[in-house]
Each structure stands twice: as C-alpha cells, then as structure tokens.
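Why do we care about 3D structure at all? Because function follows from shape, and shape follows, mostly, from sequence. That is the central idea of this module. The next example makes it concrete: a single protein chain, its amino acid sequence, and then its structure expressed as tokens.
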Amino acid sequence: MLICSACSQFSNGLTSRSWHNLNSRFNALLIAREDIEVAQEFTKRKFAENYEDVLPVFRPIDSTSLDTAKYYLVDAIKKASLIAEKHSNSKYLDEAYLLIGEARIYKGEFENAIETYKYLNTVAASEEKKTAAMTGMLRAYTELGDFKNADQLSNLLKNRPLDKANLAAYLLNMAYYHQMKGEDAFTIAFLEEALKRMKKGDERARYHYLLGQLYQNLGETLVARQHYKAVLKSKPNYDLIFHSNLGLMSTESLAHNTDLQFSKMLEDRKNQDLLHKIYYKMGETARRKKDSNGAINYFGQSVAYSGADKFNKGLAYSAIADVYLEDFLNYEKAAAYYDSTVITLPKDYVNKTDILEKSMYLNEFIKYKKVYDLEDSLQRLAALKPEVLDQKLEEIVKAKRKVDIQTPKDEQVYRPRPTLRPKWRLYDGRTLSLEKNEFVRLWGNRKLEDNWRRQEKSNTTFVFSETERKMVEQPIALAPSATPEPGLNQELNEAKIIEEEVKELKKRIPTTKIQQIASRRKQEEAAFRIAKIYKQKFRDEKKADESFKQFLEQFPKSSYEPEVLYFLALSQSNPLQNQYAQRLLKEYPMTSFGRQMRKGSVVMTQDREVAAQRIYQTAYNLYESGKMEEALKTLEEGMNEYVGSHLEDKMALLRIYALAKLGAKDEYQIALTDFVRSYPSSELLNKAREMLAVLN
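And the structure:
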C-alpha cells in the first residue's frame, strides 16, 4: 500500500515523479513518437510530387487518402493521451500534448489541433513548449486559410525567444504561410533561413528544388541554377535528380545548345518512362526562344507520350492553348485545347477553375465572332444584284463541297479528342444529308427497292424526276453512238445538289426590311460583346479600344452607345476630360454611365436616403397628376444627385414610364436597355424586361 501510494500520479514526491517519468518516456511517449514517424513515412510515399508545378513547403494533407497512416495517427493520439490520464505529474505531459496536436494536423483535424495547442499554451510549464504550441497553431490556421489569426500569431512569435528546434519549425511555418498567401519573395527569405538549420537529406534537397523553382519564376535564373545544383550534390531520389537536371536545362542560357542536352536525356534508357516530361521542358525552352511552332510540336510530343499521366497531358494541352492564344491569336484552336485541358486534368488541380474560366470566355468570344462574321457576309450578299448573287452563291457552295469531299488534313498531329459522344448517324441531320449526297454521287438517284446493286442494272436509266419515277425501269440496249458520256449522271446529280444548296442559302439572306433590321441587331449585339470581352476578359486594351471605336462608327445611336462611350472615356489618360466623356455627359446624362461619370463613387448616408425618398415621392405625385414633364425633370435631378440610393432603380423605372407617356421613343428604348444592364438585382427587373420584349 505504501509503494502504491508513493507511485500515485497525484503525488509530487520523488518516487512518484520518477516512476511516471520513466513510464511516460519509455512507454506511451516512445510508441506515440514512432507512430507519427511511421505515418509521416506512409504519407510521404503515398504523395506523388508534381515537379512541373511549384512544390508546396509542406505536402498537402488529404484526410480521405491517409488509409494506413490514419491507423498509426489514431494510435499515437491514444498513446499520448495515456500520459494525461495516467501520468499527469510527468514532466513529459507537455510533449504529449504537442504530439497529440501534431497527429491531429496530419489527420486533417485542424480545429481539434488548435484546441489542443491553445490548452497547452495555457498550462505548459515551460516557455519553449508554449512557443512550440503557438508554432503548431500557426500551421493549423494556415491550413484553414485563416490568415488573420495566423498573422497575429506570427507577430507574437517574432518577439519570443526561440530555441534551435522552435526556430526551424517557425521558419518553415512562416515560409508555408507566405506561400499560401502567394508572397514568393517572403517564402524565399524564410526558406533560405530554414535551410541553414537543416541536416542533409532528401527533405533538404526538396527545399533546394523548391527554391530553384521560386527563383526561376522570379527571373533569377543564376540563383535558381545554384539551388538545382545543390539538389544534385545532396544525391536524393532519382525523380528529384531528373527534374533538377531539367530545371538546369530550362535555365540554361539561350546561347547554349540545349537541344543537344535534351537529346542525350531522351536517349538515356533510364528516362524512357519520363519522355513526356522531357518533351514538356523542351516545349518551354522553345517558347523562351520565341519558336512557337517548335513549342507546339514538343508539347504535342509530350501529350503523345503522357500515357496514363493525365496531369502532364493536361498541362501540355494547356501549354499548346497558351501558344495559340498568346502567339498566334488563334482563339478557336486555343479554346479547343483549353477544353481538352479541363477534361484531362484531375479534379483536384488547383488552377483548374482558372483554365475552365478561360475556356468559357474563349468559347463565348468565338460564338459572337461567328455571329458577327455570318451576319456581315449575309448583309453583303443581300446587297448584290440577283444574277451576281446566284453566281456568288454557286461559287460558295462549290468551294464548300470541295472541302467536304476532300479528306480534311489537320495542321497538327495531336488534336484534342471530341468532348461529346457523337449522335447516332440516323439522328444526325447533317451527317445524314452528307451521306445521302455521297450515295447519289456514287450510285445515282436510285429508287428505294430490293437488289438495287444488281449487275444487270448497269445500263438502267436512273430516276431524276417525279414523272420518271412512275415509269418502269427497263434495261435499254443503246447503240454505240448513243452511249452516255462517262460521269454524266454524277455531273447531273452534282448540279442538282448545288442548285438545292443555293436555294437553301438564299432563304438565309436578309432580303426584306424586317430581316435586315434583325440581322443588324444580331451583328450589333455580337460586336458589342466582342469588344467587351477584349476589355474585361482578354485585358487587351488596344483591341478593346479599336473595337469600341469601330462600334460607334458602324452602329450610331445604338442602345449600347452610353456604355461604349463610358469604356472609351475610362481608357483615356484623363477619364473625366476627353471627347468620349463629354459626349456621354451631353447626349446620355441620365443613363447610369452618365451619372457615374459625373458623380463618381458616392457614399450614401441616412440623411441622403431620406432626401432621395422625398424626391421620389414628389416625382410620383407629379406623375399621378399627369404632369409628366415636371415629373421627368424631378426624377432626373434626383437620379443625378442621389447616385447609389436604394430608390435609384425605382426612380429609373418611373422615369421610363414618364418617357413612354411623353412619346420619347428613342430615349425610352435607351433607358429600358440601360435599366436591364444597370440593375441586375432589382426587384423591378422582370417588369423592365417585359417592356423591352414588347418594344423589340
């Protein structure tokens, strides 16, 4: 009894503390530490490094793919918890809590890890353990993306004394924190300091490679090469050696013959499974040399050799799309390759959303470009004389049929695969029509009957008209002089097909006044959308300005004119003092764009909202009384003075009603179009859309 009481965990005697220290250190704590090390090793082996992208400071934690590692982490928490339950007077209690927090981070339970570290920071016996707890919290907050709390912790840790172990952990956590925020320069600074305190090995080599990547992205190729060489000196695993060599070649001076070095790597038998990565780097190097066609070829080779490596294949598709978009301005091909990128890349790829967005706006641009070009062509054809039009249409049809008959020869070997499953042939009208034409070309316009390919029908006269179809076909013995010329049936059928297609094309040409107005409206909408995509999506200010200016010339008094003038005014060196701003304020002062140009951003206070309410009530009373001109004047003054008010959309709609009563048709149409664009979240939007639909 005396021995047992002396060994109680609630006793502070020498015997008790020694007993519990011994059991904590060489039993529970030892096993927990080993469990975490095993889990770390499992995680490291399971995680496939993506050397094409910048490596993360810490490998991503995915709780769904931990599998075997999770068993060891659970056991580590269980063993470390025993120290708190059965050895609470042990000096290793604080370390047990640190291990519990670390295991929870590896499990992806960041909130639980934070609670553990907070508790330890409150009860820890030593300042070193409190600092370690705060460093662990910094990692957990960073993983959660809670940069506000992480920033507060980093400021506290700056002013605390750090021992060797805590300093190394702090530097790595700060590097990770800045990397997650996209601050590469700070990431480099903290990583450089952390490297000075790390032992040689695979992890140190990995951080050298990461620094090489970061310096290369910042254009510091000489420093990047030093870190890639440091990786090779560390003699890490083969993947890291291989990618470091690629990094050295990609940072090689353009004066050197990099192609020869790449050729040696391609011939090396050890690299036969990595050819797609070599070709990808060759494409990047060709791009640096401004060899766009060579880059496309190398990236295409990378696609061909990627096999099951969907990640590399997706990146290669994306690289080809970038070349077509940036170097050749070929939007259709760029969009096709971006589509293939989205389909190929894994769902968890970080930048997949950006590529999907780029693909979407490229397809949108192509759609409007096709509409604009088509309507432009149809309008040009409509302006021709009838006889000239027939000749022109016949030329178009013949050229199209020539292209359809010939086997299409793609410029590139590596085309993106179709993204949609093709329709069944008999449900696809276009395919059915083409194949019918091909049948007629080869066999003539034969009746639908049994044995249509019988040899004795070789001299049969084939049916070409409704009258002849009623006649019974009989073999005719022709005299030698009456033998038809070779290919006569084919030529006749070809002529008939061309004639039918010309008739179909004629139906699409806007010949009446209503059709011409509809065609112009389609073209106007497309032209505006194209210019806006240049401005807001492509960020191409030069082409946007050119497109907006061309729009003003081609479509005067358009309902889009206020917005076009607004964009052009903003693109000038002095947005408020230029010809476009003056024209906007003079011709369209009451549009939302005119008001914004005049007033800029206005902060609405409670007093201003009350004043806006009074103005609206006054205008409404005038409208109800039938005093339309006074109501209109009051509304325009109120909208101009109280831009940003909660009642602005109501004022705008009441102004539209007043314009309708006064019969100001042009202003009414512009005001309606402006309302739909300017107040997309208004409760009155549906009413405005209905009115605009009636007007159209």
